[in-house]
Design a protein that fits this description.
The chain is of the alpha/beta class and 369 residues long. The protein has a domain of 152 residues: HypD, alpha/beta domain 2 (Rossmann fold, 3-Layer(aba) Sandwich). Helix content is 40%, strand content 17%. The chain has 17 helices and eleven strands. The longest helix has 17 residues. The radius of gyration is 21 Å and the shape is globular. It starts with 9 loop residues before the first helix and ends with a helix.
């Protein structure tokens, strides 16, 4: 745990911690729905600074983590076909499929490449017209506009050998699934500020109205998160349930209108199974019929099969906020960043990777002695 004086805004942090402690009269469980926020919380020990009556749990805030094994298998199978170049972000190459990951496929001879932007994949397709270049697109609404933009650009430039496996997913259906579950224990949410920068906050209002839970749109710095917790606790203690915007310096009610317009043109909502969840209605973004020529799933006749996590991996429960990483028996033993069993140990935004990188396992072992 970091000492308070190590914070850049130590005085503000102290004041917020005092505010939360003074306001809390009963136990509350709050979920952050962003892997970047999880890493800030764990890195700075914010959860350990809060009173014991306030529990932070980590939700499905990592798009790499919630991409189902069947989708990974689909990408791996495609990468092994002749004259296919499969491109994606680095995290995706290490996520385990049923039998291997994309790095293993590359080691076996598949043309799998790391890119830093979907534009890199489009440029590769233009440079190598004899190959089919496929971009494996993963992310929440935050990165979906860039995929929409590159598909729109490919259509405008008439690039015939470029296509996309769209694995983008939406946050609100996951929140609804958690709140609808019989084993739910979450009473309030910290929503991801970058998602709301794109989408705005209006789509959270029906969830607040239906489930009577506060949702606070929150930034990513320690002060942002503590202020978000303070706002959430205040609502819970007062019996209120509203959408509040802590991240007003970036988020507007309407979001990014231009980005949303492009997404609406390029994508359509579809049902999809998530890792750790059942099939969630209208939870994913697939290419619309207008851009079917750039849909790799349709172009290559791909079929997503259902595959299960390894029995010893509890990633699904971690992603639903039912377990913290340290409560998984495989954490730090049979599951490490070098030999991951599940995606949350692989991704830069995964909760298990956050705990491992922050030394929480070693700290827990020391406390147990």
């Amino acid at each position: 745990m970091k000492f308070l004086d190590e914070f850049r805004d130590a005085a503000i942090v102290r004041a917020l911690i005092g505010q939360i402690r003074g306001a809390t009269t009963r136990p509350w469980t709050i979920m952050e729905v962003c892997g970047g926020q999880t890493h800030t919380i764990v890195r700075y020990g914010l959860d350990e600074l809060l009173p014991r009556t306030v529990t932070l749990v980590h939700g499905p805030g990592c798009p790499v983590c919630v991409t189902p094994i069947g989708m990974i298998d689909l990408a791996i199978e495609l990468s092994t076909r002749p004259k296919i170049t499969l491109c994606s972000f680095g995290d995706m190459l290490r996520v385990p499929g049923s039998t291997c990951d994309l790095f293993d496929a590359r080691a076996a001879g598949a043309d799998v490449r790391v890119v830093y932007s979907p534009l890199d994949a489009l440029e590769l397709a233009r440079r190598e017209p004899i190959r089919e270049v496929v971009f494996f697109a993963v992310g929440f609404e935050t990165t979906a506009p860039t995929t929409a933009m590159v598909v729109h650009q490919a259509a405008r430039l008439k690039v015939p050998n470029f296509s996309v496996i769209a694995a983008h997913v939406r946050v609100p259906p996951a929140i609804e699934a958690i709140l609808s579950s019989d084993d739910n224990r979450v009473q309030g949410f910290l929503a991801a500020g970058h998602v709301c920068t794109v989408m705005g906050i209006d789509e959270y209002r029906p969830l607040v109205e239906k489930f009577k839970v506060p949702i606070i749109v929150t930034g990513f710095e320690p002060v942002d998160l503590l202020q978000g917790v303070a706002m959430c606790v205040a609502q819970l203690e007062e019996g209120r349930a509203e959408v509040e915007n802590q991240y007003a310096r970036s988020v507007r009610n309407e979001g990014n209108v231009a980005a949303r317009g492009l997404m609406a043109e390029v994508f359509t909502f579809v049902d999809r199974r998530w890792r750790g969840f059942a099939t969630l209605p209208k939870s994913a973004l697939a290419l619309s019929d207008r851009y079917a020529a750039y849909d790799a799933i349709r172009r290559f006749g791909l079929t997503q099969t259902r595959a299960n996590e390894p029995i010893e991996c509890r990633a699904g429960e971690v992603l639903r906020g039912l377990l913290k990483p340290l409560q998984c028996p495989a954490f730090g033993s049979s599951c490490t960043p070098d030999h991951p069993l599940g995606a949350p140990m692989v991704s830069a935004e995964g909760a298990c990777a956050a705990y491992f990188g922050a030394g929480r396992l070693a700290a827990a072992a020391t406390e147990a002695k």
